[in-house]
Every structure is written in C-alpha cells, then in structure tokens.
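Lab meeting, item 3. Inverse folding demo.
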C-alpha cells in the first residue's frame, strides 16, 4: 500500500460525510454509496481510504507532541495546547491535542465501520475479503486503544450509527479493552504471516495485542505474544538506526517496521521537516540528554569517560542520532531559522539530504507506530515482571543495545534493577516516537517525573500532572453533542 491513490482520499471524504444531500445527488464525477461498493476494486479503494484516515496529524506527523507532555520534550510554540496541558491546564474546553485525538480517532472508526458494513455485499474473492476485514478490524482496534489510553471509558460504535443512535453512554474501560481484544483476535486469525510492507500483517496485530496486555500489566500474555513475533522469521532489527526514520533508510531496510502511517510525495506528504527541522517546534529537554549513557554503558554521573567540558563525546550514539546539539548547515545555509527554548532540537527523522527547508518542503517518510525494537523491549519488560531477569530478558534488551554498539547490561541484576534498565532503554530507544507519555502513566510515575523537570520560564515544578489527568476529559463540544455522556471525574 506504499502508493496511496488519490481516490482513497475521495473515499475518506465519503466515509466522513454526514450529508444525506451529498449522497442523493450522486454526480457522475464523484464517488457515492449508490455507485460504489460494487467490485473488488471498489473494496481495495475503500481499504486505501481507511488507511488514509490514519494520516490525521496527531496519529502521524505530530505524534512527537506526546513526548512534549513529558520530561523528554518541550513544545515551545504551544501548538495544539501541548505546553498548556503539560503545565496542568487540562480542561474540557482545552481543545488542541485533546480534541484531535478524540475526534480523529472517531473519524477513523467511522471509516472502519462503514467499510465493514459494506464489504459483505460485494461479490469478490472470499480470501481477499477476509484479509481486508482483518486489516480494518486491526485499524479499528488501534483507534479504540488510543481512545482507551487517553480517555478510559469511551463510547463503542461497532456499526455506523445515525445521529440519534450516536447519543449513548460510554462503555467502561474494561469493556473497551474487551472490544479491542476481540477485533485483534479476529485480525490475527486471518492476517498473513509475512513481512510488513504497508498492509497490516499478523505480526502487526500480535504487537498491538501485546502492547494492550503490557499496558494492563498482563505480563505473561504480553511475553507470549512478543515471543511469537521474535521467532516468526519475518522481522528483524535494522542495522541503521538513523535510517529507520528517513525515507531512503525505510526503503532500504524495512524489516524492523511493523506498523507505520505511510506517505509518498509529491501527491501524499506531510510537514515533519518543517515543524521539527525548520521551525524547531519540539525541543528535547536537558533531562533527556542526561540519561544517555557513556559508551562504556555507565551513566554520565559515574562514568570516567564523561567529560563535562565535552559533554557529547563518548556517549551512546543514539544521543546524537536523536537530538541535535548544534545547528545544521547545508551549502552554507542554516536549516533551522527558529530558536529553541532548551538549547536542543530533534535530529530523529530529519533528513540532511533535504534542504534548505521551507514551506515547499515535501516530507514523506513513514511515521512509525510499532517496530521490532519496541517488541524486544516489551518482551524484556513483560518477562522480567512475570519471572524475573532470566537470560531471555538479557538477550532481548542487549540486542537493542548492540545495534547502537552499546555494551551488554551487567549480569546478575535484580528484578528491580532490570526494571529500571528496561525503562531507561525504552526512553532512549523510542524517544519522540509517542510512547513515553503512556509509559510514564502505566508505570505510575508520571506525577513524580514531571515534578522534577526544569520548565523553560517556570523552573523546577513548572510541569503539572494531577491525579485525575490519568483520564483526559471529554471535549466540551462532545458533551454538548451527546448529553448521555458522563464527564470524567475531576473535570
């Protein structure tokens, strides 16, 4: 599905249209429900439309903003109200990222439900239909997992509702999780055990199901599912960490990627290089820089290799592969024209072959949501929690470290010590990929972590996470639309 078709975007518009008049006009030059859903080609086009729904900004190009809610990053422009939320201003009327996650997830779910309703009426190859349904059920489960992680109890729609049918009470978080697992189980049963190339495959669904279990402390289940991926023979770590996040590297070494939102310039592109590279909207924090070890595998507070006068030398290579510590110049032109509030900019995902950056820059690297390194670290965490730091735990985490030429962990770590090393490794390996905020929440340490951050302009204690922030509020616009909803406690 690398080459997204323009017609898929037209279909997405059809999916999300609420206008009966639009469908009744049935013009010859537009797609409508009266002329569509007739052939296998229509089903494929509709599938592309469902995939395209994931290109919504918060689920793709600006996913890095989730790290700017943490001790990893700072959004210097307050884009999408990220700075305000990180400072404790989280209300039903906050808007920004709160509305984006909620509304864009339900738009995607609507696309999934319309697809699942209509594909059963198409005369097409039965096995192809079964696979398409499995792919869409995965995507629906992924959207609901995002909703459950941020909002907890949410409304479940498994078919396209009318306006009045949409006004119902939310389901419990546990019921949402059961719905997610049901969709993922259906998907796993029908998806091929092949390498991921853009369409959802079995390992994609196994990885998400493992993550759902991990986030609910169901350690044995998470360890079992991730081990299935590890022995599947269809995925592996890339040799090139930097290349994972730029177009040329993704095309050359795709084996690590298990799930991503895909783009292809010039017709289908995003603005990552502008937001991150030119505007420097997200800024890494000193707190993140300091947790990267020296090359001997020892923290900078204890390593004899660390020199505070040359703080970026002899460090874990992922530090400079993730964080820019000084401006870049291409042909004498500085590609970052904007400032940074922390002294740092993001390197991960910035392509030095593109420049000078400007409003016409077309970014099309895929935005990764699941990759094999994450699977290995999920396995290490789950297995350590389930049985302790056995050799398989060491093997998994050391494989991730070895890719970056970092030494193996010391032997004979206790369970608690291994837990801390795994959490540190996740933070280093997955920085600015949208995992850290949810990791801090599920570990129950987010209030403490944020309280220690030196926030630009506010100092220590400038970030606030209150106990009721574990579940975000329903957007006020949704409360107004659906009076059956019960607003979250604390709002």
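The presenter then showed the designed sequence:
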């Amino acid at each position: 599905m690398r080459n997204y078709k323009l017609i898929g975007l037209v279909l997405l518009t059809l999916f999300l249209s609420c206008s009966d008049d639009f469908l009744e006009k049935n013009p010859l030059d537009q797609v409508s429900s009266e002329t569509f859903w007739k052939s296998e080609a229509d089903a494929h086009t509709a599938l592309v439309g469902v995939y395209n729904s994931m290109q919504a900004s918060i689920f793709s190009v600006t996913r890095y903003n989730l790290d700017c809610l943490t001790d990893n990053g700072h959004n210097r422009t307050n884009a999408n109200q990220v700075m305000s939320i990180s400072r404790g201003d989280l209300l039903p009327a906050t808007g920004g990222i709160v509305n984006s996650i909620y509304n864009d997830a339900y738009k995607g779910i609507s696309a999934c439900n319309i697809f699942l309703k209509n594909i059963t009426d198409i005369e097409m190859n039965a096995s192809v239909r079964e696979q398409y349904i499995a792919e869409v059920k995965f995507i629906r489960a992924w959207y609901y997992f995002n909703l459950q992680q941020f909002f907890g109890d949410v409304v479940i729609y498994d078919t396209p509702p009318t306006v009045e049918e949409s006004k119902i009470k939310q389901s419990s978080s546990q019921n949402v999780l059961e719905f997610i697992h049901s969709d993922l189980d259906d998907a796993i049963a029908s998806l091929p055990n092949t390498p991921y190339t853009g369409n959802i495959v079995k390992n994609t669904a196994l990885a998400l199901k493992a993550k759902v279990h991990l986030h609910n402390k169901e350690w044995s289940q998470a360890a079992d599912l991730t081990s299935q991926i590890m022995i599947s023979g269809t995925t592996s770590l890339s040799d090139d960490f930097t290349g994972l996040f730029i177009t040329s590297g993704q095309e050359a070494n795709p084996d690590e990627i298990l799930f991503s939102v895909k783009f292809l310039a010039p017709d289908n592109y995003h603005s990552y290089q502008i937001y991150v590279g030119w505007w420097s909207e997200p800024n890494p924090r000193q707190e993140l820089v300091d947790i990267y070890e020296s090359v001997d595998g020892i923290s900078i507070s204890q390593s004899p290799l660390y020199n505070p006068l040359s703080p970026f030398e002899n460090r874990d290579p992922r530090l400079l592969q993730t964080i820019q510590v000084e401006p870049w110049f291409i042909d004498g032109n500085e590609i970052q024209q904007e400032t940074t509030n922390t002294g740092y900019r993001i390197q991960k995902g910035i392509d030095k072959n593109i420049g000078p950056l400007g409003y016409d820059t077309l970014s099309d690297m895929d935005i990764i949501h699941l990759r094999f390194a994450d699977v290995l670290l999920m396995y290490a965490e789950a297995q350590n929690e389930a049985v302790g730091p056995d050799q398989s735990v060491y093997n998994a985490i050391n494989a991730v470290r070895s890719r970056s030429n970092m030494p193996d962990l010391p032997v004979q770590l206790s369970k608690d010590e291994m837990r801390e090393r795994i959490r540190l490794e996740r933070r280093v390996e997955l920085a600015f990929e949208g995992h850290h905020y949810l990791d801090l929440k599920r570990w129950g340490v987010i209030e403490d972590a944020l309280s220690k951050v030196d926030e630009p302009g506010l100092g220590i204690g400038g970030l606030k996470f209150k106990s009721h922030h574990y579940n975000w509020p329903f957007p006020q616009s949704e409360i107004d639309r659906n009076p059956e909803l019960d607003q979250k406690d604390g709002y």
